[in-house]
Amino acid sequence: MKFVDVKFLLSVHTLSQLPEADFPEIAFAGRSNVGKSSLMNTLMGRKGMVKVSGRPGKTQGLNFFQIGEEAYFVDLPGYGFARVSRGMQESWQKLITGYLETRSSLRCVVLIMDIRHGAKKQDTQLLSWLQQNNIKCLPVYTKADKLSGNQRQQHAAALDAGHTISSERRIIFSAKNGMGKDELVTALASFSKLG
Ligand SMILES: Nc1nc2c(ncn2[C@@H]2O[C@H](COP(=O)(O)OP(=O)(O)OP(=O)(O)O)[C@@H](O)[C@H]2O)c(=O)[nH]1
Ligand SMILES: [Mg+2]
Description:
The chain is of the alpha/beta class and 195 residues long. It has five helices and seven strands; from the N terminus they run E-E-H-E-E-H-E-H-E-H-E-H. It has helices spanning 36-44, 86-102, 121-132, 149-163, 181-193, and strands spanning 6-12, 25-30, 62-67, 71-75, 106-114, 137-142, 171-172.
């Protein structure tokens, strides 16, 4: 997978705005402020391609990025942000689940979790929902730079156990120092070639 020609395509707020399913698609999901946009910037090798903010709930709508003629990457709005109204949370959820359920070109959901935190209910729910819907999921534990080597392994093991994820299936990552980037690119390349 090459990231030479990367561009922002569009922001989708209703399912009718979805672009043609022309390329294999990879979606990036996770709790608000977990580091989805930062991870995508690191992957695409473009610091400012996806907007990153200290304020949770920054990413709204489904943001589509085109990776050459190879794939679409989709930045999903973060879930679990208490400061937006319940009605807003519900409409986000509708949009996201509607997208995930119907998108024929979707190859994989990268589920991003903060390596410092324990298993969170919303992540557990999304994991099992994806499984039920036969959608492939790649778990990534991010912000690994914030822990020492020992702590990193301990926290990763706790997350594995909390979500019943096998350690070969997930990737430890840092947007800050690029840890896990090559591994992630390799995994995504194999997903986007499927079918
Ligand atoms: N140290 C460290 N900080 C990170 C890492 N990834 C993200 N951050 C920081 O975490 C904050 C949130 O990052 P974003 O990438 O905007 O998170 P997001 O999940 O896209 O957030 P929403 O769009 O609001 O859901 C920012 O202050 C980032 O600089 C990482 O790997 N290491
Ligand atoms: Mg974001």
